[in-house]
Amino acid sequence: MSETAQGLWLLIVFSLAQKSASLRVAVWRKLQKFGALPLGNSGYLLPNQPDNREKLEWLATTIRSRRGDASVVEVRGIDNRPDRALKEQFVAARQREYRELLQEIRRASMTVNATSVRVPKLGRRLQEIIARDFFCSPLRKQVEIELDGLRKAPASPRQPDFLKSSAADYKNRLWVTRPRPGVDRVTSAWLIRKFIDSRAKFAFAPEDKRPPHAVPFDMYEGGFGHRGENCTFETLMRVFHIRNKRVARMAEIVHDADLFDDKFGRREGFGIDAVMKGWAEEGLRDNELLVRGMQLAEGLYRSVV
Asked: Within 10 A of 294 (CB to CB), how many other CB atoms are there?
């Protein structure tokens, strides 16, 4: 029998330095992401599973490194909260998250270009909830079915004008994308610079403030972006007929990291994505994020197998 089946739980108890407001928020967000159940002032509870133990031990280490105190203890049971009641609380918490996600999926189904714009984000949200759905909420299957239906919905007949142009039209151009670039955008910028436009310049702008005559990529409307089940990197590779074995493998890595659908079973891109998020939290400017991300992409290109 598993530890959870025997009624074992993990409880993290901690105290923070009085002036650790930022750490307090960070710890709370981590526990929310883990799906931990608050037990009043006693601490936070998770099922006793190896991955949960690792998460809590690392969190405790972080708290202690910031002059706080933290312990992770194994609990067989809580006298005023039977195991069954605790499991029901975990399930109820996930039910709320699944219901909110269902509402977003149904709203997305009513919008234009829902498949290319919203599905990747919704898919990531679903995977995050599943990761903390320890006791298999009955709503999970319904969400998966409706999201799959949205993913397979016909794409809008509107096609970006750029897709019909020749590669020669993209020399010495300004390319624009959204601020705070992630794994798909930095690898796409690398692909543009290496195979499409060696003198490409890049800018960042919201949808309604694009520079005139700039070529949009990974924007929600127009230009080169998600097409059907393809991420922006894949769209660029196909439109410009880039036939390179290493690029093809990179496309699989970027796809899985960006769309979070595990289509190719490639996990390497999640490392790049995590590094990009870490740099973003440091407050780096968009241009610096892009430069560093493109360096990571070049390293991936040289090492990919």
From this structure: 21
